[in-house]
Amino acid sequence: MRQAVGERALKRAARQCMGRTGSPGADGMTWKTFRQDMPARIEGLSAALADGSWRPGPLRIEEFDAWGKRHTVTIPTVTDRIVHRALRNAIEPVLERDAYPPWMFGWRRRAGRPLAVAAAARHLHAGLPWVADIDVAAASLGVTLEEAVTSVARFIHDGSALALLRRILSALPDPLAPGSGLSPMLTNLRMTPADQQLTGCTTVRMTDNYTLFTATEPEAEAAYRHLTGLLAAHGMKPAAAKSKIWRPNPEDLYAAG
Q: Which of 68, 156, 196, 205 is deepest in the core (most CB within 10 A)?
């Protein structure tokens, strides 16, 4: 908890948030306004988090069209975005050590699409040309508050940090609501139980897109069925329109849209 609420941790989180463009939240505060009195704001935020008096601010909900469908995004206030990021910064080093497999890319530091493509290329060129390519359908939907908190509590045992997580998620329309700074981490954790059961498979996961590499088409079909069963056991399923068995080029994998 100290690593999430200290002034130094909050300043780091604020700089990370400011490095990305973003609209103001429901309170209308912009990053420009926040920076004008940033030391005092950070000090007050740290004190409120430490004594338990901090409460999430109002949310702004926006809808937009992309990739052929309608999306809804939750926009917290800039102050709440800092809290989300600071808590994520405190939790993720433990997840990197204890939860995330080495073949998982996306939604984590220094593990973007180029590295996922490079890993896939190594497997394809090593004689595993057939791929069971499964995109998880609506990976951020259908998770309850208790499930989201429990997924973190499997690895984080600090009650104060878990209480802060619960307070943050209780204020959101959905625990994994797109737009929350915690959604990428929680979505990764939702798939971790399936990840841990993929022993013996040559796998790359890029965000919510699994690719299992095999030598033959029948092996790829068996891998597809195996992963589909694992996902079903944890309330998930393949997105039929985006999942298939094929022989791809590495650069054709993990492309959005």
A: 205
